[in-house]
Write a structure and sequence with these properties.
Number of domains: 1
Largest sheet: 4 strands, antiparallel
CATH class: Mainly Beta
Strand order of the largest sheet: 3-2-1-32
Shape: globular
CATH topology: Methylamine Dehydrogenase, Chain H
Structural class: mainly beta
Number of helices: 4
CATH architecture: 7 Propeller
Distance between the termini: 46 Å
Low-confidence stretches: 1-34
Length: 462
């Protein structure tokens, strides 16, 4: 065979192999790190769950300005005093607010996750034991109805009751095909498995209460969160009551609905004797799952493949109290960030702030370490999420800014430039402002989860 023919065959072989790989819908193909996408662009949104105000703050990441707050309260749906937020010029405290007569709004909005196509997201009300769906494009709560009493002193919409799922729903997660939401019921020993399309109809009152629940799935006590492997064939469930992880094999029928069977139980007491793991996420390459072990002040990394073995445990320091983990990988670095609940007094400009740990993921598993920290520029850092280009990072905070600071008394979201992931550069604080109700202004308070959403694009759950 001539050299020219050999080269021609080689080129054809490469092309054929490339086409075949692109056509494969295999787990391995789906687990690859996605190609870099443009930075923040028109239509992108950052959503933040505010647990004390029961609202969703929305940020336009192009301008880093606030958009109108999404209202998950039921205040001012009626002009009479028992329905109003502010009565007699008195703004209620948080405790008084959620116990107002006839209040049927959310209580303790907490967990939040985008659908695989990023067109909707689900958020859980811990105190109301329910789940709400929100349209990521229109910023409307799915199932809300026009308020028949709407007027200049009342709200335009009546809030849906959402989907009642069970005691203390902590975090929801979509299956990879987007047909179901698995909700970790931290106050029970089970997950609620929700049909997404039926949930939309139930929220709108088109189906009876409970119609969207496909089944309840028994799991370990105090389930905090569930996340799926890259191909969706495995589900990992963590607990905030006992030091264990449960692993389930998941199968899907022709309609995309799941059945699950317990595959393994992982003992974690050597790394976390408290058994308090609030957060779980799969790495972008699909090969690892990382969990935060808050009271043990560390992170544990496990193989997401067949063996699910412990790859490494990363101590974060005394009373670090890690909350969430996010991954950033671009041509200048490959890191994991972990937000600290701890607040330190030596923050920027002498103000109290939390730290965020930087773990260099370019080293082999078992040899990674914390290579640095940066301040979150807020107090009690919690949710953290990057944009699709892995160049911008957003961080939510639970506590308000202290007196004497530029945004004193306000909860803030902070933005960082992470074009160099090992050297994050602070961009700005974004004060979250208020929900402007007809009767008064409700400050957005105690931010927990944060997600970056590009409607129509693949999310971290895809």
């Amino acid at each position: 065979m001539s050299s020219r023919n050999a080269k021609g065959l080689s080129r054809r072989a490469v092309i054929q192999a490339t086409v075949a790989a692109a056509a494969m819908g295999s787990v391995a193909a789906r687990a690859q790190t996605p190609a870099a996408q443009p930075g923040p662009r028109a239509g992108d949104r950052v959503f933040i769950t505010n647990e004390d105000s029961n609202t969703l703050s929305v940020i336009d990441p192009v301008s880093n300005e606030l958009l109108p707050t999404v209202n998950l309260t039921s205040f001012d749906e009626d002009a009479r005093p028992p329905f109003r937020f502010v009565t007699g010029n008195v703004t209620p405290t948080h405790g008084e607010m959620i116990q107002k007569p006839l209040y049927h709004g959310a209580i303790s909005i907490h967990g939040c996750v985008p659908s695989p196509d990023s067109r909707i997201f689900a958020t859980a009300g811990r105190g109301t034991s329910n789940l709400y769906l929100v349209d990521a494009v229109t910023l409307k709560v799915i199932g809300n109805q026009p308020n028949p009493m709407a007027g200049p002193t009342t709200a335009a919409d009546s809030l849906t009751s959402g989907i009642l799922v069970g005691r203390e729903p902590h975090e929801p997660t979509f299956t990879r095909n987007g047909r179901e939401i698995w909700v970790a019921l931290r106050g029970e020993n089970r997950l609620a498995i929700i049909d997404v399309e039926r949930a939309k109809a139930e929220s709108a009152g088109e189906l009876p209460r409970g119609a969207a629940i496909r089944r309840f799935m028994p799991v370990l006590p105090g389930p905090a969160m569930v996340w799926f492997s890259a191909g969706g064939e495995t589900a990992f469930v963590i607990s905030q009551k006992i030091p264990r992880i449960e692993v389930f094999s998941v199968r899907y029928d022709g309609q995309g609905f799941s059945t699950a069977e317990r595959k393994a139980t992982i003992e974690t007491s050597a790394q976390d004797r408290f058994g308090f793991a609030p957060f779980l996420k799969i790495s972008p390459d699909g090969r690892e799952f990382w969990i935060s072990q808050k009271l043990a002040d560390g992170l544990s990394v496990y193989d997401a493949g067949a063996e699910h073995k412990l790859l490494e445990h990363l101590p974060l320091g005394e009373r670090a109290r890690p909350n969430h983990v996010e991954f950033v990988q671009n041509d200048r670095g490959n890191v994991a960030y972990a937000t600290f609940g701890r607040v330190d007094d030596d923050g920027p400009d002498g103000r109290a702030a939390s730290r965020i740990a930087i773990i260099d993921r370019s080293a082999p598993a078992g040899r990674r370490r914390v290579v640095g920290h940066f301040f979150s520029h807020g107090r009690e850092a919690h949710g953290i999420w990057t944009d699709p280009s892995n160049s911008k990072l957003y961080v939510a905070h639970e506590l308000d800014e202290l007196p004497g600071s530029p945004h004193a008394g306000q909860t803030v979201c902070c933005v960082f430039d992470v074009a160099d992931p090992l050297r994050p550069r602070f961009v700005r604080q974004i004060p979250l402002g208020t929900l402007d109700l007809p009767s008064g202004k409700l400050p957005n308070k105690k931010s927990i989860n944060l997600v970056y959403v590009r409607p129509g694009a693949r999310s971290a759950t895809a």
